[in-house]
Amino acid sequence: MSIPIATARAALLAATLLTPLSMAAAAPPSPARPAASAAMMAHGVPNAVFTLRTGISQGKMVYIGKGGAIDGQVHPTLTAHKGDIVQITLINGEGAEHDLTVPDMHVVSQRVNGPGASSTLTFTAGNIGSFPYFCTIPGHRQAGMQSLIQVVPATPKEADKGVSIVRDPADMPPPVGERGPMTVRYDLEAIERVGRLADDTTYDFWTFNGKIPGPMLRVHVGDSVELHLKNAENSVMMHSIDLHAVSGPGGGAVLTQVGPGETKSFIFKALHPGLFVYHCATPMVSAHISNGMYGMILVEPVGGLPPVDNEFYVMQGELFTAEPNGHTGLQEFSFDKPMDERPEYFTFNGAVGPLTTEHPLHARAGDHVRIYFGVGGPNFTSSFHVIGTLFDRVYANGSLESPSLAGVQTISVPPGGSAIVDLTVPVPGKYIIVGHALTRMEKGLVGALIVDGKPRPDIFRANDNPNAKVHASP
Ligand SMILES: [Cu+2]
Question: What is the CA(378)–ligand 1 centre distance, in A?
């Protein structure tokens, strides 16, 4: 017997968005942004969130605003922008049975019966206008339990461009240097924030420390790492961390499932040198990775790596938006496209082309340049390549326990994998960074290495006299 598609979809939604009960128990819902429900997430992450408490005021049954701009207001008018995903949580304050409906939005909450009972409803504010909300229990609307939802035009485009979530590839901690093993503490924070995906296109990213990728952690082999993971107060989801440098169950994920406002910590010993990916490992893991929750940890070998002039940090990711690539405005996560492995965007450091515009890589001709490259994914192998040069040295798979490769044009890096590439560019100019599966360039996967310096006609020049007799030919 086949499972109906709708049932399968509902199961996926639940697996994606509802945390296991044991995790949920440890995570008190934030009053401002209550825990996610499958119904709510069917629309995406809400961006206009309200809580109403029922009560008695001057002998009448009322809705009272709780938190935010409506705090304490009786029968508050709820204001949202066109296109917002509106979430209203109704909490029973005095014990009588109530509910809340917005007939124009075709939504009605479950009834809340008894003090403290609550229900949440979610809808998209599709049209501009004023729409009544009220209680459907006979007599309650007439007794006063009603007010309005006001949907106003969307904010001007400028305001919608979003903050940058791109980590500057030059944002690398310094080398560890010569020292023995020690205990190193890192504090990471899971932060959900709307940021710029492309010009006029934004997305509700999930990040470590607000940028993509998360910060590069840099330790020495044999170090003990004390890792603290906080989940921001205003998060909607649970988050966690799995570091591939960890030897232990879940790479740390079993010890770090954190609800909004929570912090958890664990300690691991970095047994192997290498460049390792870390990522969130809260179900549905691929969604947390796709939304931006990945980074890397460099475990330096005894004696460190050979010194270079410039170090950079670049990671490849994929985004699955419901609307096609190039659509403007706030984009929502698609539930179908990840299962079909059909990303709309491929990114370096989280967004479309930021390493060509906002943060190109800079070096001087002849510099020794090192790129720490990794793939968050979740799914696609990268064919990492810098057009116009090749890699002098590659530490394939991020391994620092294996011999390195020399003279490599393109290096294959799997999801959850990495490579360290060293290059020297003698000729100045602009060198385009790509995955050599080049259609992905059209989906955002492109960067640039800008090299300054004196021309080197001995290595590269235009031929001003193409008809001249060549001195020697094969
Ligand atoms: Cu997460």
Answer: 13
- Regions of the chain with pLDDT less than 70: 1-44, 155-160, 470-474
Per-residue model confidence (pLDDT) at position 142:
87
Q: What is the pLDDT of residues 274-302, one digit of tens each?
A: 999 999 999 999 999 999 999 999 999 99
Distance 322 CA to ligand 1 centre (A): 20
Q: 393 is written with which tokens?
A: 């040295």
Residue 207: what pLDDT? 97
- Sheet order of strands, 294-300 included: 217-220, 294-300, 274-279, 242-243
> What pLDDT is recorded for position 423?
98
Q: List Cβ neighbours of 458 (8 Å cut-off, separation of 6 or more).
A: none
CA 307–ligand 1 middle distance (angstroms)? 35
* The CATH number fitting domain 183-452, selected from 2.60.40.10, 2.120.10.30, 2.60.40.420, 3.90.78.10: 2.60.40.420
In terms of Cα–Cα distance, which of 326, 362, 367, 371 is closest to 344?
Answer: 326
Residue 436 assigned as binding residue: yes
Cα 198 to middle of ligand 1, angstroms: 22
pLDDT of the residue at 160: 58
The response to whether 280 counts as a known ligand-binding position is yes
Asked whether residue 359 is marked as a ligand-binding residue, the answer is no
Confirm or reject CATH 2.40.50.140 for domain 31-154, answering yes or no.
Answer: no
Instruction: Give span(s): CATH 2.60.40.420, the chain.
Output: 31-154, 183-452
CA of 285 from ligand 1 middle (Å) equals 7
Beta-strand ranges (E) seen in 82-117 are 85-91, 101-102, 107-108
